[in-house]
Every structure is written in C-alpha cells, then in structure tokens.
C-alpha cells in the first residue's frame, strides 16, 4: 500500500508505518532542522530519532515549523524515538519519554523503542531486566503517550524471550541491515514472531567508521553494489535503500544534504531484478559494522560480543 509518504507496512498492532524514513543519528547541531524540513517537504513521512542523538530539540523545531506552515499535519507524520540505556528502570521510562516529547514538541510518539538491551550494570544478569522496562513501555502505550512500542538491537533469542511476559509484543525491532550484514536468520525469526524489522545504517554508516572503528565504507564500495547500480542507472545508496525495501524491511537512511535526502527517497518507482537481489545476497564476508564492543564488560552480563548478540 502507498500513500503520501510512499509504501507502508502494517505492524502487528494494526498501525501503518511508512517504509522509508529519515535517520537523524550523527546529524550535527545546526544541520538536522534543515534536513527534517527538506525531507518532509520532499515527501518523507517517517522521521527516526533518539534521545542519545542529542538533537531532538532541533527536530522538534523543524516539526513545529512544518506544522505551522501547513506542510504536513501531525497525523500524517510517523515519528520514532528511543529509550536510552540509563533509563531502563520502570520509574525512569515515563520521565525519559516525557523529555523526548518535550524536545520534539509532540504530545505522543508513533513508535518508542528500547534502544539497546543494555543498562551498563555489572553482575551476571541484566538489571533492570528487560521485563521491567517493557512493562513500563506498555504502560506508556496504554496512557497514549506512544502509539506503538518496540525494541532495537535485539537478537532473535532476546526478542523471543519477551513472549513470556509481554502483553503487547514488540511491533518493531530496529537493527543494522545491509548486504554486508544481511542477518537472514534474524529476518526469518522476526517474521515468525510477527515483529517488523527496520534497517538502520543501510549504507554502512561510513561517517561513524573512525569513531566506532569499523569498515562501513565497504558497503557502498562493494563491487557487487557498484555493478548493480551501474546496471540500473542508480547510485549505490539508492540500490542499498531499494534492497532494504524490496526485502520487506523499512529503512531509515541518514543524510543532511538536500540532494541526497531527495535521492534516497527516489527508490519507490523502480525495482531490482531477481538477479540483482541474488547478487546483493552473495556478498561475502558478512561483517557487522555497529559491533557493540563498547557494551562488553568483563564484570557485566555481556562479557563478549557473542553474549550481546547471542551469536556472531
């Protein structure tokens, strides 16, 4: 189904989310306001935010101006934000959400995600437990502060474990997904569990490579991606975003450059062939860029990356 913001996906709670959104991670101060305005004027109806990005106040300024100018109504826009690791205690969740709503100048969020299954605790078990955090997320939804709730960076094992206590099962799991980190098993598991996957860093997040020490530039530079782009007369970035959409995920590419914001949205009126998709599915080796090493702690519940991701 398609509307003003392009095709949408129906989530497990019945709500419809636009498949292509604007990511705002690493958008510098003074840049994200213009980026959000350019995106919405250009047709985007999905904006992906997070408290830890430290720029929600600028996104809020952009949204307030867009609403005042009549460019879009609140009801036409899908706004996602995320709960940071230091606010997982049950009593802290509503306060964190309230701060995000105030920064964004909104009365409700369309989607609120637990950003990481991480709290910075020591000891053998995660504390506060995800169950405590999730019950508080469900309460936010019941109070109308958020319309849909979900998670981010959750393995299939961590997501499935929520079946034991979740009255409302996560509508979305937002994870790193691109042809160099396809996560086919996670895609299948989320489908089985009824949780939609959103792809973050679909271009490999090359602008975080030096900060996080990864090889993200290799995603757009992959010979297979370049070959497909040449074959269809599109940019490597457009091929990667189209790949995500055609695979059945939503996708939130980040840019602050108006021409790239426009180009990244121009992925809805054309398709990749089965051969193109097969070529992109053949890229090896597979490599996670946002590896999460920074959450590993010999004294905590995640001593290794295998602990964090429940596998490679």
Terminal CA distance: 35 Å
Strand order of the largest sheet: 4-5-6-7-8-9-10-11
Unreliable residue runs: none
Q: Percent of residues in helical segments?
A: 25-40%
Compressed to H and E, one letter per element, the order equals EEEEHEHEHEHEHEHEHHHHEHHH
Number of helices: 13
Overview of the molecule:
By secondary structure, the chain is α/β, with parallel strands linked by helices. It has helices at residues 32-41, 56-69, 92-104, 130-142, 156-161, 184-193, 209-212, 217-221, 223-232, 236-246, 258-265, 274-280, 305-309; strands spanning 2-3, 6-10, 16-18, 22-23, 46-48, 78-83, 109-114, 146-152, 172-176, 196-200, 250-251. It has an eight-stranded parallel beta sheet with strand order 4-5-6-7-8-9-10-11. The chain has a three-stranded antiparallel beta sheet with strand order 1-2-3, with no helix packed on it. Helix 9 (223-232) crosses helix 10 (236-246). The longest helix is centred in the first third of the chain and has 14 residues, at 56-69. The two termini are 35 Å apart.
């Amino acid at each position: 189904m398609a509307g003003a913001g392009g095709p949408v996906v129906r989530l497990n709670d019945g709500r419809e989310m636009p498949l292509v959104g604007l990511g705002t991670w690493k958008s510098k101060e003074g840049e994200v306001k213009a980026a959000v305005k350019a995106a919405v004027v250009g047709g985007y109806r999905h904006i992906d935010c997070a408290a830890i990005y430290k720029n929600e106040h600028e996104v809020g300024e952009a949204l307030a101006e867009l609403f005042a100018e009549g460019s879009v109504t609140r009801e036409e826009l899908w706004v996602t934000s995320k709960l940071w690791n230091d606010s997982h205690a049950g009593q802290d969740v509503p306060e964190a959400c309230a701060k995000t709503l105030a920064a964004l100048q909104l009365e409700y969020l369309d989607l609120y995600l637990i950003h990481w299954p991480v709290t910075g605790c020591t000891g053998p078990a995660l504390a506060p437990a995800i169950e405590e955090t999730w019950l508080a997320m469900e309460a936010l939804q019941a109070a109308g502060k958020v319309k849909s709730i979900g998670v981010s960076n959750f393995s299939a094992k961590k997501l499935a474990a929520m079946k034991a206590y979740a009255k409302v099962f996560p509508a979305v799991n937002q994870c790193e997904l691109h042809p160099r980190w396809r996560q086919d098993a996670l895609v299948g598991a989320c489908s089985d569990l009824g949780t939609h996957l959103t792809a973050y860093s679909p271009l490999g997040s090359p602008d975080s490579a030096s900060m996080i020490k990864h090889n993200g530039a290799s995603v757009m530079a992959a010979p297979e991606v370049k070959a497909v782009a040449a074959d269809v007369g599109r940019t490597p970035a457009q091929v990667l975003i189209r790949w995500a959409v055609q695979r059945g995920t939503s996708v939130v590419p980040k840019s602050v450059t108006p021409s790239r914001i426009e180009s990244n949205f121009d992925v809805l009126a054309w398709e990749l062939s089965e051969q193109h998709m097969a070529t992109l599915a053949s890229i090896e080796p597979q490599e996670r860029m946002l590896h999460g090493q920074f959450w590993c702690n010999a004294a905590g519940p995640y001593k290794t990356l295998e602990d964090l991701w429940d596998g490679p």
